[in-house]
Amino acid sequence: MKTTLLATGLATAVIAGSFAVAPAQAEDSIYVPLFTYRTGPYAGSGIPIANGMEDYFAMLNERDGGIGGVKIDYDECETGYNTQKGVECYESVKAKNPVVITPYSTGITLQVIPKASVDRIPVLSMAYGLSAAAIGKTFPWIFNAPDTYWDGASAIIKDIARREGGLDGLKGKKIGYIFLDAGYGREPIPLLEDLAKKYGFEMTQYPVAGKEMQNQSSQWLNVRRDRPDYMIMWGWGAMNPTAVKEATKIRYSMDKFYGVWWSGGNDDAAAGGMAAKGFRTLNFNGVGKDYPVIQDIKKYVVDAGKSQVEPAKFADNLYNRGVYNAMLIAEGIRSAQEHSGKKVVTAEDVRNGLEVMNLDEKRIADMGMKDFMAPLKMSCEDHNGHGPLYIVEWDGKDWQKSGEWFEPMTDVVQPLLEAAADEYVKSNAPWPERDVPCAK
Amino acid sequence: MLYDIFVDPFVQMAAQPDFLLQVLWEGFVAGILYALIALGFVLIFKASGVFNFAQGIMVVFAALTLVGLHEHGVPAYLALILAIAVMGLLAYTVERVVMRPLVNQPEIILLMATIGMTYFLVGFGEFVFGGEPKSMITEELGLPTGSTAFQIGERGLLILQHIDIAAAVIAIIMVAGLGIFFNKTRIGRALRAVADDHQAALSVGISLNQIWAIVWFAAGIVALATGIMWGARSDVSFALEIIAFKALPVLILGGFTSIPGAIVGGLVIGFGEKIGEIYWGPLVGGGIESWLAYIIALIFLLFRPQGMFGERIIERV
């Protein structure tokens, strides 16, 4: 009898509770879910990014009272970098009226791309996900600023060409590509193969299975045998530090070892210590603490004890990347407020806001991000911006800026992106026609 | 095609003998490390017939305890002793909370219990130590770092990492120690009796509970050694848990109950997958290492189903 009563009581409480949580977000706030991973094999990369994103929003709420006077209501959904869990996160936050989704995984992004236009929620996959999603005509709800993986791959080839005396210098060179054997790592292969044909270099691939991330000795033995002139890495999580260590083990020339921006965590390079000196990665956010925005985060959030970041890891490269990502979301909202004239904007407003977003030098300075980032402008046609990048080099203890900002090979990449978008439409038929007008 | 499969790999081996030596060395080190992981599985299976699904997370948990304590200011050697103590406590808890209540239950129930333990330890480990990877305190533990290069021929080079040499030495000492423990001590003989027949062992006064706690403790120490060695090669993170399943083909090959089988199986898999990946992998675009080990093990099973050193069980009707 007691059990029955208890069960009835519990059931009543659950039903009552479900009604109690049913109301949507408070009207004076804007809901932004953050898909993060603080657990699992990719937590080493996921934690600093999650901290950076959270702290930027916390700083905006503390310092400015939110965006345009409206508080940002943000929370994390743990995906473990697992596509299935990511889709569950997407489905669970949908009912709370999110203004934008940031999947933080190429695998999750690929799954939610078809859902975005149905649910009418913009997806911001910052410098990851499907490269072809930069084509706004085909993917009106997807944004992948500030660069696609294809921009990144072309930028690395461009930098190698610079060191070899021009694009002609690439002829006959051997370039190795070591990558996480998943959607993320496979994404730039078509572009690299295309560039290899075009400029006459040989590309050798070294796939690393997810479950073998910490067991790469075979791949690096192959690298030692093949003696590539340069190595490019598309690594994530535990793959990065292992690769850096293995490269030092075979005494690979570290200044010829490039990583995409996601291989540029401090812990990734620190695994190789001083021996990893010279290892370089692409970057699109500032390194270090010497920016007003980072100082404001320190003042309003970290020093106030409201951050989860360990003091020693504050303003690490991936932390700053998280700050950059949160800034893109915040600017999308701010742009939406200006565009719509409303304070509490909707997902559709933010889609428009992202499409008209123009982060010029003045706005960058106003945000306290001078030299932290390059100007960025998106449009109805271009949902990426294809912004300039720069190289950071590991000095044995920290990342240092090496050289100036430079443009990716957009002229080469753009036609390929358009062709890839057309191909996507064909292979995912019937792909819906764009049904939202261009935001202007 | 036939040339690529049957001739070219051997031509490559002959053309670059230094590289072949390097491949064999890497295969040896990988084999030793796989054997260490397999050893943890074998110890528990021998004593209780349980396939310990939690062995992988025990590797992570042991290594994280060591590094985590050191991060909180505990000197390296004291942290090592405390980590061993924590594994002892874990063994005691597992015996009291998991094994004892499930005695005489079907083996599948015990397997499920170890799966449950895995997820508990993942959550508990992340709660206590956080999800961020940590660097192994290799130098603080007095383990050697750096490498030595040997000139072979005019241009050849064989590079031996000192930590890999240390891993091999430690693994050999551990195996020898476990061998002596199981064959020459009273507890070791009791464990073998338990492995042969639980009820017969109980009838002669052997305490099953005590044996289980000791075996789980021994598996915990093996897990700690494995965690230190693997952690030194990359870092200590929850990704290491997956690496434990590299021991599965080793167990298929060596048998689930044989310590020498774990060692020989580990070495066969280590050599086999490295040579296969380097010399035959490029024929199919590489990346064959993860499944080649299973192919080697399955081919072996065709000829010896009980594994290399496993006990041949003949049941007569």
Descriptive report:
By secondary structure, chain A is of the alpha/beta class. Chain A has 2 domains: 29-148 and 287-387 and 416-427, Rossmann fold, CATH 3.40.50; 149-286 and 391-409, Rossmann fold. In chain A, 43% of the residues lie in helices and 15% in strands. Chain A contains 15 helices and 13 strands. In chain A, the strands form 4 sheets. A 7-stranded mixed sheet of chain A has the order 6-5-7-8-9-12-13, sandwiched between helices. In chain A, strands 1-2 form a two-stranded parallel ribbon. Chain A has a two-stranded parallel sheet with strand order 3-4. In chain A, strand 12 and strand 13 (399-406) form a beta hairpin. In chain A, helix 2 packs across helix 11 and helix 2 (43-64) packs across helix 12 (317-340). The longest helix of chain A has 24 residues, at 317-340. The model of chain A is unreliable at 1-26 (pLDDT under 50). Chain B is mainly α and 317 residues long. Chain B folds into 2 domains: 37-238, no CATH class; 244-317, no CATH class. Chain B is 71% helix and 4% strand. Chain B contains 14 helices and 2 strands; from the N terminus they run H-H-H-H-H-H-E-E-H-H-H-H-H-H-H-H. In chain B, a hairpin with a 3-residue loop joins strand 1 (147-152) and strand 2 (156-161). Chain B is globular. Chain A binds chain B through residues 37-44, 46-47, 181, 205-215, 217-219, 221-222, 224-225, 237-238, 241-242, 245, 249-251, 267, 270-271, and chain B through 16, 19, 22-23, 26, 29-30, 122, 126, 130-133, 135, 147, 159, 161, 230, 233-235, 237-243, 245-246, 273-274, 277-278, 281-282, 285-287, 289-290. Chain B: One of its GO terms (biological process) is amino acid transport. Chain B: Keywords: Amino-acid transport, Cell membrane, Membrane, Transmembrane, Transmembrane helix, Transport. Chain B: It comes from Breoghania corrubedonensis.
